Amino acid sequence: MAPKSRSYQISATPVTVFGHLLFIAVTTLVIVWLLKFREGLAFESANKLKIFNLHPLLMVIGFILIAGEAIMAYKSTPSRRDIKVQKAVHLTLQTIALGCGIFGIVVIFKFHDETNMPDMVTLHSWLGMIAICLFGLQVQNHIQEQPICHGILLVAYLSSS
Ligand code: HEM
């Protein structure tokens, strides 16, 4: 007699909920760290540390965490039966993450420029630059596959559905 088939599929819900909780915890910790213990945030300031502080903020919350939320969008977007909405939310979040990542790198270049420090001299800087470039290529591929999801069209699509 053939053995009974078993399903090894497990629910992604607990992992997704844990992911959202981690998002809240890390966001809170980074904001408290930067505002309370690292003199705050600014794009223009005589206190250059404030300019530097934008880099970890944008990279951790804007780039890594929002990209994580984009990955979980297929699970956490309420309209579960409409894959187009989920894809649109996913692409919007990935685009925001890419924008934050690029801005975070602009900020650290600005900080180096204003403090007369050299650019791209560490392993961190090269690996970080490669990561952003590969991420950008991936988002661009997505946009080419779904031209309707591009920019303003995407917003129009979301508000009409
Ligand atoms: C995915 C996340 C991150 C990426 C892609 C990234 C990328 C980069 C890049 C490309 C540079 C070079 C800028 C230049 O040479 O002018 C840089 C510099 C720097 N980053 Fe990040 N970064 C990330 C996260 C962080 C975090 C979380 C911190 C600190 C908490 C940090 C601290 C620094 C520091 C101190 C520098 C200047 C020194 C150096 O070039 O290594 N970075 N980062």
UniProtKB/TrEMBL annotation:
Using the record's annotation, list all stretches that form the Cytochrome b561 domain: 18-161
Alphabetized UniProt keyword annotations: Electron transport, Heme, Iron, Membrane, Metal-binding, Transmembrane, Transmembrane helix, Transport
Q: According to its UniProt record, where is this protein located?
A: Membrane
What membrane topology is annotated for this entry?
Answer: Multi-pass membrane protein
Gene Ontology molecular function, alphabetical: metal ion binding; oxidoreductase activity
Q: Which Gene3D superfamilies match?
A: 1.20.120.1770
Q: Where are the transmembrane segments?
A: 12-35, 55-76, 88-109, 121-137
User: Required co-factor?
Assistant: heme b
InterPro entries tied to this protein? CYB561/CYBRD1-like, Cyt_b561/ferric_Rdtase_TM
Name the major location: membrane
Q: Which GO terms describe its cellular component?
A: membrane
Query: SMART domains this protein is in?
Result: B561 (SM00665)
Pfam families per UniProt: Cytochrom_B561
**Which protein are we looking at?**
Cytochrome b561 domain-containing protein
